[in-house]
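Something for you to look into today, if you have time. I want to see for myself how the chain folds. Leave the record below and I will have a look.
***
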Amino acid sequence: MSSHPDQRELGLGGIDEEIVVEPRNCPFFNGKKVCDVGCGLRHTAFLLGDGTVYTCGCNDLGQLGHEKSRKKPEQVGALDAQNIVGVSCGEAHTLALNDKGQVFAWGLGSDGQLGLTKFTTSR
């Protein structure tokens, strides 16, 4: 993994500089209300006021919910039927919470971080 951003996770569409040191407006969201943002190691998730989720950045482990990496934010279509109210990102996974309290998870889950495995307890 690269130790510096390649601009995909910023949602700026792949600008020329490798590192952006001054805050810039992400024009993709002009005219839209962003309610929540989650940041992973090399990806970002955005929750819009209408309950839709957009992701961008590196997708080497499926953390975007798309087929490949995205330089510009793209809507996570698998969540179209959901009213998402919160997003969160780990290093290489993403979580979304809907208005019914259900959690949707995708990306790397090798250590159980997606919460999708059966848990057993032993005493």
Observations:
- Confidence is low (pLDDT under 50) at residues 1-5, 119-123.
- Residues 31 and 48 are 11 Å apart (CA to CA).
- The longest strand covers residues 34-39.
- The beta strands are 34-39, 43-48, 53-57, 70-75, 84-89, 93-98, 103-107.
